[in-house]
From TrEMBL:
<dbReference type="GO" id="GO:0005886">
    <property type="term" value="C:plasma membrane"/>
</dbReference>
<feature type="signal peptide">
    <location>
        <begin position="1"/>
        <end position="41"/>
    </location>
</feature>
<keyword id="KW-1133">Transmembrane helix</keyword>
<protein>
    <recommendedName>
        <fullName>Protein NDR1-like</fullName>
    </recommendedName>
</protein>
<dbReference type="InterPro" id="IPR044839">
    <property type="entry name" value="NDR1-like"/>
</dbReference>
<keyword id="KW-0732">Signal</keyword>
<keyword id="KW-0812">Transmembrane</keyword>
<dbReference type="GO" id="GO:0009506">
    <property type="term" value="C:plasmodesma"/>
</dbReference>
<keyword id="KW-0472">Membrane</keyword>
<feature type="transmembrane region" description="Helical">
    <location>
        <begin position="185"/>
        <end position="208"/>
    </location>
</feature>
<dbReference type="GO" id="GO:0098542">
    <property type="term" value="P:defense response to other organism"/>
</dbReference>
Length: 209
């Protein structure tokens, strides 16, 4: 009788140990596979025609400095071609300029900058300056990314982010630390949900066994 009871206890301990090991393994996999999308921001945006001190509405160029930050500690990022589109507000359909950056690879914990000067068309520069309107632009970024995890890469994931750029009387953006491009999509890593669910189930089984 006592031998049987002892054998049952050993079996339960073995099962609990297996469940705990499975849970820890699942947690490790979740931490290893969890990815964070790159942080995209416009660090500098300058519109010479809206610089009231320069008073030169014949200069129809716009200058931008795009910064891409890979905050993943051990995962690189492959970018497809990156497309930037600029719209003049309040008319959201008035696209005044666009830019394409060629595909590239970015190492983990690395930052990349893309700077360019573009010719903007369709902006009522004289009317904007005469009305004392500083200027508001909408910038949208679109690309697809793959994450390099150890020796393999994930499938492509769509990345679409954007922000509104407010230009002051000097022709520059108001925010000194840059404008972050954001998306309305959830921020959880692409591989986070399924493995996190496995972790929760493992812990629940461990508690109630």
């Amino acid at each position: 009788m006592s031998d049987y009871s002892g054998g049952g206890g050993g079996c339960r301990r073995c099962c609990c140990s297996f469940i705990l090991t499975s849970g820890l393994t699942a947690l490790f996999m979740w931490l290893s596979l969890r990815t964070s999308p790159p942080v995209c921001s416009i660090q500098n945006f300058y519109v010479p025609a809206l610089n009231k001190t320069a008073n030169d509405t014949t200069n129809h160029t716009i200058y931008f400095d795009l910064k891409l930050d890979n905050e993943n500690k051990d995962k690189g990022i492959y970018y497809d071609n990156i497309t930037l589109t600029f719209n003049y507000l309040p008319n959201t359909t008035l696209q005044v300029a666009n830019y394409t950056a060629r595909a590239f690879y970015q190492g983990h914990k690395k930052s990349t900058r893309r700077k360019a000067r573009l010719e903007a068309v369709g902006v009522p520069w004289e009317a904007a300056v005469a009305a004392g309107y500083n200027g508001t632009f909408r910038v949208d970024l679109a690309t697809k990314v793959r994450y390099k995890i150890v020796f393999w890469s994930t499938k492509r994931h769509k990345l679409e982010v954007g922000t509104t750029l407010v230009v002051n009387e000097t022709g520059k953006t108001v925010k000194k630390k840059g404008d972050r491009l954001k998306s309305g999509a959830p921020g959880l890593g692409f591989y986070g949900a399924p493995v996190a669910l496995l972790v929760v189930l493992s812990v629940m089984v461990l508690v109630f066994v």
